[in-house]
Amino acid sequence: MTAQNPPQPDEPAGPAAAEDEAVLALAHALLDAARAGDGATLLGAVDRGAPVDLRDASGNSPLMLAAYHGHAELVAALAGRGADVDLLNDRGQSPLAGAAFKGYTEVAEALLEAGADPERGTPSARETAAYFDRAEITALMEAPRA
């Protein structure tokens, strides 16, 4: 392969391309683990050096996906490993707003305990909780934090 003869789509991939594919496969597996609440897989990888704030094509982090799918223990564990609890996805949504939208009180509590800001995002978690009449989550956001 030379500059005059670029690789064709049907040519076998070189070592770098194979490595890129392996990294992408791992990233997808970790994001799937977040959705499924598979802490053993996800946290094990993070503990071995995988980026805790990895993001998918829509800007969703593992913490966002765990929050949106109702996995409070995994959310707390990710936050404990340094995940950004206020990291917005590409639509400007925060993990706390996702928890408020879905009505996951335990997830909202875990996020708030980890320092999540109810005013982050568009709409904010506070606005989302009010819109969907999530009284328990609104009360959590109003409660003083230590």
Annotation keywords:
146 residues; mainly alpha
- Spatial separation of the terminal alpha carbons: 62 Å
Round the Cα radius of gyration to an integer and report it.
19 Å
The counted number of beta strands is 0
What is the name of the CATH class? Mainly Alpha
Decide which structural class fits the backbone: mainly alpha
Helix content: 40-55%
Organism: Brachybacterium saurashtrense
Protein name: Ankyrin repeat domain-containing protein
ANK repeats: 58-90, 91-123
InterPro entries: Ankyrin_rpt, Ankyrin_rpt-contain_sf
What does this structure look like?
With 146 residues, this protein is an all-alpha fold. The chain has one domain: Alpha Horseshoe (Serine Threonine Protein Phosphatase 5, Tetratricopeptide repeat). The chain is 54% helix and 0% strand. The longest helix is centred in the N-terminal third of the chain and has 22 residues. It is elongated.
In short:
The protein has 146 residues and is mostly helical. It has helices at residues 15-36, 39-47, 62-68, 72-80, 95-102, 105-113, 125-131, 135-142.
